[in-house]
Amino acid sequence: MATEDPIPTPTPDLGTKLQSMPKSMLYLILVLCCSIPLFFKIKVPNAPTPAAKDLFNALNSIPSGSTVLVESDWTNSTRGESGGQFEALTRILMRRGIKFAVYTAADPQAPEVSRDSIVQISEQERAAGEKGADRWNDWVNLGYFPNAEGTANSIANDPRKAFGSKKDINPDGVKSDVFKSPVLKDIKVLSDFKMLIVITASNTSTVIIQRLSGKGMPIGMMVTGVMGPETSVYYTSGQLIGLSAGLKGVYDMETLMNDTFTKPGLTNFGKGDRYYPTLHFALLLLILAVAAGNVGMFLNRRRKA
Amino acid sequence: MLFAQVQKSFWNEESGSSALYIKLILALVVGFATMALLLRMPPRGRRAVVVGITFLSGLFYVAFYLWPKPLPGVDGTGAPLDPAKPRDFVEYVGFYLKDALPIVADFSNILSTFLLGLGVFSIIRIHGRKLIRRQTDWGFSLVLMFSVLLMVVVGYINYWQTHYGPDPSKLELPRNWSFVQYANDLLFNGLLQQMDAAMFSLIAFYILSAAYRAFRIRSVEATILLATALIVIFSLMGVVAFFWDKGVNGISGATTGGIAGNFTLTEVYTWIKQNVQDPSIRAIDFGVGIGALAMGLRLWLSLERGGASA
């Protein structure tokens, strides 16, 4: 029986190779690009954005002893960005002696995540010789509100009624009305809060702007990179006093803190400093991957022409 | 001195009071009775009830936004009027709406909470059935049910200890933790939160793969898009932005109003943001807003039959 000669498989040219890199190889390079920089201390030069500077300056101009409202709508899925922002915020508030009330309108997991973060940061601040923040005296946990729209309306209408049924643990270990705490005892109307800071990875930022903007309480936001562009619209319109967006925003806040809080032993850099080099490598890989695909396409076109 | 729940109404009671528990039981009874009544009603009658309640619920917020708000006034002598007393019917309704808002917000929060319960019920129903009937991949359902049960038990014991146990504030610090707090930490922070982060981080792989395969310069529009994306990406890279800006600022006159000053990465990105990105997003938001208004009207007036058919 005669055997047919096998048809030789053409060797793919460079253009085809560049356009059809296997997924697994791309993923492996991404893992390496994102992991390796974490093992090295790489200092990245940075010029903070005007929006981040405005937010930092606004936080720095709040009088000590006054109270701000914090809407913490993040969990560990976005901890690289939101976690770093929340840590920077709580450090600033603790160092400046500003009291804060934390509530959530996005995720049932968020109150526990933010509480753990506050306790951890407070311990670190105390270890560095700062005051930290005591629950009840310096901050209170207002918990989770499942309906963001209704809650924001209610806060705009009367914060005492909106949070009136909430209780937190006082230093005697007893659950007590939050408005008896030093944090909220002087809050009667919305403008008694010197600022509302929203840390979010979702569209609760829009809900807040729609219902609480222009009510006598400045609003600052710390959002993820994905939410940055659509939130920046409210910064340019003047509805936000300042904005920190994405990992760059975290690093901006840390850079500004480092320039302001110069006492030896203080921790100013955190997640922004650790993850920002990684973002560089990941973005560089993205650029190279897109460039490789396009170079491959041009090579193939030229060959066919 | 003002305290919480400063205005007592039919809808609130002191936390832990017997009056509160009586009202809670009454609410449960009324809730179940209403549900039973609705289930026994013919579909047309049930639909009328659902449509009526939907309309009234929406009407409250429409009235709240559109009805004139009570403002502080002065009498003939210029002395301020009592801000707590309405002067006419319009103000009376305005006061009513303002006072009712937190109660309505509480209702909406409670109704939204039912969605969480509904989600848990749905998970138990679907996976419980799969488990009992030993359907394909029932092992995964077993792991899920066990995880739910474990999280609920440990979570509630931890909640009770950290809120009602002896000296609960001490339990915030890990050095005072007992076995339950460690177990809760392992389940919540050690497993659930880490899996949450892992799931979200998968997006990076999809973005890279999609950008590599789909981002081709095949037209003028694609070229403009790619160039813009490159500028935005470079502006997010602090090293690139810092040294580019430094290089441009080194050109004579760049920092003193010269034309070269417009070509720092920060300036170019800001121009793109203010003149391209923000207006585009505003236009999209405007369209979405009109769409939401139309959809809201359809839902309010029960013209949207899809999900409202009783």
Walk me through the structure.
The complex is a heterodimer of chains A (305) and B (310). Chain A is α/β, with parallel strands linked by helices and 305 residues long. Chain A has 11 helices and 8 strands. In chain A, helix 8 (204-212) links the parallel strand 6 and strand 7 (219-223). In chain A, helix 2 runs antiparallel to helix 11. The radius of gyration of chain A is 25 Å and the shape is elongated. The mean pLDDT of chain A is 92. Chain B is mainly α. Chain B is 72% helix and 0% strand. In chain B, helix 3 packs across helix 4 (138-164), helix 4 packs across helix 5 and helix 6 crosses helix 8. The two termini of chain B are 49 Å apart. The chains are: A alpha/beta (305), B mainly alpha (310). At the A-B interface, helix 2, helix 5, helix 6, helix 7 and helix 9 of A face helix 3, helix 5, helix 6, helix 7 and helix 8 of B.
Short description:
The complex is a heterodimer of chains A (305) and B (310). By secondary structure, chain A is an alpha/beta fold. Chain A has 11 helices and 8 strands.
Features:
heterodimer; A: alpha/beta; six-stranded parallel β-sheet; two-stranded antiparallel ribbon; 11 helices; 13% strand; B: 72% helix; 0% strand
